[in-house]
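Design job #97: recover the sequence.
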């Protein structure tokens, strides 16, 4: 998975089991700590999600968290499932990450 143009960062992706029982996909793009390019990539992914889902969904902001580094999460809920896009500063690593989490909707029995 790659970021939308003009970014040329490849993602590191993994999967996990969601609470719904479906398999979530998690992708991460590392950037230099607090790089403006990370914020621009975060915003580009937020803009790209509705197009990828073929819908005109509005994004929901996550609740504030008590976190020592910067954290911003946007959530899209669609019939196909839930998509989360987050921007996280990791001071200990001196990196900022853009994360994408995709969890398919639960399949009916």
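Job complete. Output follows.
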């Amino acid at each position: 998975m790659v970021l939308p143009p003009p970014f040329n960062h490849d993602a590191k992706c993994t999967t996990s089991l969601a609470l719904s029982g479906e398999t979530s996909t998690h992708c991460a793009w590392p950037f230099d700590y607090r790089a403006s390019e990370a914020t621009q990539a975060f915003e580009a992914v937020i803009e790209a999600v509705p197009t990828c889902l073929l819908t005109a969904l509005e994004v929901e902001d996550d609740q504030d968290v008590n976190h020592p580094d910067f954290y911003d999460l946007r959530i899209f809920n669609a019939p196909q499932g839930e998509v989360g896009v987050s921007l996280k500063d990791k001071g200990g690593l001196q990196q900022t990450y853009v994360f994408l989490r995709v969890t398919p909707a639960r399949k009916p029995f």
